Amino acid sequence: MEVEGVSQGAVSMVLHVDSQGQLVDSLVVAYTHRAFADEAERVVKLWKFESEYIDGEPVDTITDVVLNFEVRGGLVVQHTGLFNPFFANMGEGYQVCGMKNLDAIPTPLNIVAPVYPLEWAAKGIVGKVTVDFYIDETGKVRFVAAASRANPLLTDIAVEAVKKWQFAPPTRKGRPVLVHAQQLFNFRDDVVKASN
Q1: For site-directed labelling of 127, which of 75, 108, 114, 189 has its Cα 20 to 30 A away?
Q2: 3-class SS at 180?
Q3: In Å, how far are 4, 104, 142, 164 from 186, measured between CA atoms?
Q4: Which pTM does this prediction carry?
Q5: pLDDT in tens, 19-71
Q6: What value does the CA radius of gyration of the chain take, rounded to a whole number of Å?
Q7: Furthest-apart CA pair in the chain: how many Å?
Q8: Please, what is the end-to-end C-alpha distance for the chain in angstroms?
Q9: Domains and their CATH numbers in the chain
């Protein structure tokens, strides 16, 4: 990179760390130069993680991390954090696509509906859940997480349903791309009653 005159750059990643502090999956969602992305993918597998806790219980965590690279003499400095000043001027870079930049809305191949028990409607367990996820270049759904906090029961069934979804590979200008997506679920007792 230094020979090519590149002295700084950044990589944005999404990490899934399980309740035992083990890295389950990582996904590069943006980079300024492919070489920095390759290095980030290599080193993140060497990192040690601590479990996150909610109400005293360890939980899985999905988090964003940005690695900022700077070359100072012969030293490469890597900073982690959410500050990404380099992505505005990315050069040969790459970023995850938004839905509006695709050739067409991704075609669902397998959509599983959340299983909403009838007794929840009777108990007044209703609400909206927004689920955040990525669809990778193969159409696989990755990094499924609740983007909004609703009743934990509703959140769990919505997230578990989306984890089973599959799409045709999303494309931009005819080439498969990674895309960020969201799905809103509205759990209402009147809809459940009407469907039974």
Answers
A1: 108
A2: strand
A3: 52, 25, 22, 19
A4: 0.78
A5: 999 999 999 999 888 888 998 999 999 999 998 888 899 988 888 888 887 76
A6: 20
A7: 69
A8: 62
A9: 8-95 (3.30.2420), 99-195 (3.30.2420.10)
